[in-house]
Amino acid sequence: MKRLIRAIVVLFAATSLAAAAASDIDTVWACRYNGSMSIFCSLIAAPAPTTVADPSPAPSSATDIFPTRGPLPPLVGTIAAEPGLLLGQLVRIPLHSPPEYLDDAALLADAVMCGGRLNCLVNFDDGLTPPPVVP
Question: What are the record keywords, sorted (predicted)?
Fold first, then answer.
């Protein structure tokens, strides 16, 4: 069973990287709904970080990144400015309740991890749909 899960993850990552290579996308996230109260995302590909820093550096101020919003956690600044620093880490998006529609959960994951950037892609796995059978 573990081999099947690993094979699915590797296939999912390879498909994501192939799609990104064919376009201008340079940041790719794999996100998965865990079936209850969280979405977990991991970075598959991103440009190399331009700085070596703490994985969750605080921006000089919250208004530097999102001028119309209040203070945000430092991790938000890292996701927006230097996602490459998060390679190998799991980012958890907490939910207040299980999503009624999984398309909305996918939209939330895209909004959090890409924030509208055109060079970013989120591959969302609902965790409930069985993987395709490969002949």
Answer: Signal
